[in-house]
Each structure stands twice: as C-alpha cells, then as structure tokens.
Design goal:
The chain is of the alpha+beta class and 432 residues long. The protein contains 16 helices and nine strands.
Length: 432
C-alpha cells in the first residue's frame, strides 16, 4: 500500500529504520519534491523519482524512475541523481519512458551471429552461387563469430571493426573480404529494419593492399609435375612419417612399401585442371551430361561468371574418354570426378595435391596456379589475349590483361628491330 505519511527529509537513519512489514510503501522527501524511497515487504529499499511528463498537465500519467538500491547509493547521492533526472523532466524529456524504450530495444536487438545467419539464409543462399554462400559462412564462422558473434549489432563501432580488421593482418585477403561481407550484412539489416537506416560501421574502413599472385610453371617444373602424376597413379608417391605427429601412420615392416598410390580420379582431376585452365569447382562439380565429346566442349550451367563453355583440347578429350571407360555404364547425372559418398562430388584435392607437389618439389605452387600456367602458355604463344580470355571464361578483358606481359614475341621482334638499327648506326660511326 502507498504511505500517506507526511514527507520528511530522507536520511540514512530514516531509510534504515523503514520496515516492509506493512507491505510495499513509499517514503517521500520533504525537501525535493518527487524524490523518495520504495520499501518492499522483503525489506528491499530503492531510491526513486516520481514525476509527470512536462506539457501534459495533471492528466499525464505518473512516471516512476528507479535510481538504485539503498546501500548502492547513499541518500545524498540518490538526491543528487534525482535532481539531475528532474532537471531533464523540466527540459521536456521523459527519462523513465526513454529507459523503457532502450530496454525493449535491447531485448529485441539482434546479435551479430543471428544477423549473419539471417543474411546467409535470406539473402546469400537464394541470390548467390552455392560456393559463394559456403565461402561467406566459412569466413564468418572462422573469424567473425568468435570475435563478434554475441555482440548486439548496433553496439559495434567503426573503431572496433577497424581493430578487428587489423587483427587479421596475417590473412589480408580474408580480412578485406570479411569487411565487405559485414558491410553487406549491415545494408541487409537496414533494409529489413533490424538496425537504424544508414547504420554501417564497416563503411570507410581502409582495406589492405592485395597483390595479384603470378606463379607459372616452367618447362622443367611441368616435367617434374608430369613425372609425379605418373608415379602417383602407378607405383605410388613416397611418404615419410613425422615422428612428432601422434596421428602419423606406423612405419610398415617393409620399407620398400612406403609408397601410396593416389586415387586415379584425383590425379585425373589435377590433369584436367591443367589441360583446361578451369577452376577447381568447375572440374569437381562437372557431370557427364555437361561433356559434349562430339564437339569437344564442356557446357557448365554455373561458374564464377555464370553459364560457361569450355573448349576442350585433345589432351583433355583423351583424358575424359579414359575416365568414361572406367565409369561404364555412365549415368549422365553422375559426376566425372566422383566423391567418396555415392552421388556426391569430391569435396577437394588438398591431400593428393599436397603429396604430388611435395614429390615434384613444387611446394609453393597452388592448384589455381595450374590455371595461370594454362593462360601463360597461351599468352606466350602469341595466341592473343582475347582468345586466352575466351578459353578461361573471363567476363572482363581487364582480367586477362594480367597476362599481357607474357605475350613477348611481338615485343621481342620490335626490340630486335630497334637494336639492329642502333647497332648498324654504331658500326657506321666506327667506319668513318
């Protein structure tokens, strides 16, 4: 019940003496109107401010603003806090209502991890390629969620994201891509009303400079790769045991048997990557119905640049014919490079490629460098960058332009012509 007692100056002695035996009641301060103590039956005592919002008259509902419990605040500290709150009321604010709205917003606020899941399921997966959605999820799960997952999105600042970006300096490409993903997430959230319109702490964060890697296999390296591929599918690749690794295989009794024959489909996939210049997923997800032997073409329904046609050379055709003969009878929906699980493609080539490149002494060569090598040979043979770009499936000419410096034959002829004329001029001067 509410106390009708005459207001008195609230002091520590008065508050300590107050009892909750009568149930909930209030002690009101005689000096500062609206300042009081709420006493519960349990004995808990809380300093409060009671007021009516300014401008609404006596018809306005009373507001109660809790300052804090007795013990956490002294009466004098609570009185000073009450003065500040009443000052805000006098200025036209409504502190109790503002606190309520903030609390409701916090309860309904979306966390970073929940926003990421909504972004992936409602935006990325329906509108982007499956490989894009997979790479987004992998980056978010590996880097972003551990650092930001439990945070309410609207509490994340630009300075905080900049520090997060800086913490990933050892993987600059991933760091840059994550900032771009987070920026897209914020735009998505703004469009759904999940965050205030225009909220985007990722905007304006300076990215790391990314240098395009150019690694092409030389004639000698290609020869070593060919020998390693041949051994991998026949006598096997030698392997060594790491005694420090508890998961290492036990040494076989016969040291001469320390070779491992690799999956022939995996070796064939590596050869196809080199012969076609295709991307990894384009080969691993290739189905027999997409192979046209008669016209020597691959018709890919999905690639990084959309639908794509790959022109097959003789080496690629012969390899595919060999794979088809091993797969008889061929189901058109089946994958050319089958995975371990029936009906599923092979997920990657990491283990066989690592074994092959180690044996071929090509430890700095990535699978994607096989595509670069395909392009470099075409450019070096002066086939023309538009032709090379068409073979690779580049959507933009500037993408192929990175191989322009390899098309050296015309430049060499020009340099020889200039050099010869300069040499002749010098020879003529010595005869005079």
């Amino acid at each position: 019940m509410v106390s009708r007692e005459r207001p008195v100056r609230i002091t520590k002695r008065i508050v300590d003496k107050a009892s909750g035996v009568e149930g909930r009641h209030y002690l009101w301060d005689g000096e500062l109107r609206g300042f009081g103590v709420q006493v519960e039956r349990s004995g808990t005592k809380t300093y409060i401010v009671r007021y009516r919002p300014r401008g609404l008259g006596r018809a306005a509902p009373r507001r109660f603003y809790k300052i804090g419990r007795h013990g956490e605040f002294t009466p004098d500290e609570a009185r000073e806090a009450a003065k500040r709150i009443l000052g805000r009321v006098a200025a036209g604010e409504d502190p109790a209502q503002e606190r309520k709205l903030k609390r409701e917003q916090a309860e309904n606020a979306i966390t970073f991890s929940n926003l990421a899941e909504a972004f992936l399921s409602e935006h990325v997966r329906p509108k982007r390629r499956s490989s894009t959605a997979s790479s987004y999820k992998q980056l978010i799960d590996k880097h972003a969620n551990p650092a930001l997952g439990r945070r309410v999105v609207t509490t994340i600042t630009a300075a905080e994201l900049a520090r997060f970006h800086l913490s990933l300096s050892d993987v600059p490409k991933s760091a840059n891509r994550l900032i771009a993903i987070i920026s897209s997430m914020c735009n998505f959230a703004g469009g759904r009303g999940l965050v205030p319109e225009g909220f985007n702490p990722a905007r304006g964060i300076e990215k790391y400079r990314e240098e395009a890697r150019e690694r092409y296999l030389t004639k000698d390296e290609l020869q070593r790769l060919g020998e390693a591929l041949c051994e991998a599918e026949t006598v096997g690749i030698p392997w060594d045991v790491d005694p420090k690794n508890p998961k290492s295989k036990h040494l076989p009794k016969d040291s001469g048997r320390r070779r491992q024959v690799l999956d022939p489909n995996a070796v064939a996939a590596i050869r196809l990557l080199l012969f076609t210049g295709a991307r990894l997923r384009e080969i691993l997800h290739l189905r027999w119905r997409e192979v046209d032997f008669e016209r020597a073409l691959l018709f890919l329904p999905e690639s990084k640049t959309g639908k794509k046609t790959i022109v097959l050379n003789t080496a690629a055709i012969e390899l595919l014919i060999g794979l088809k003969s091993r797969a008889e009878p061929v189901e058109l929906a089946a994958f050319v490079i089958p995975g371990l699980v029936e009906g599923r493609p092979r997920s990657d080539l990491k283990k066989p490629w690592n074994a092959i490149r180690r044996h071929a002494r090509l430890t700095d060569v990535r699978l994607h460098d096989l595509r670069h090598t395909f392009a470099s040979i075409g450019a070096g043979a002066s086939l023309g960058l538009p032709v090379v770009g068409a073979l690779l499936g580049h959507a933009q000419p500037q993408t192929t332009a990175r191989y322009a410096h390899l098309d050296v034959d015309p430049l060499r002829r020009a340099a020889d012509t200039i050099g010869q004329k300069l040499k002749e001029a010098l020879d003529d001067s010595t005869r005079q």
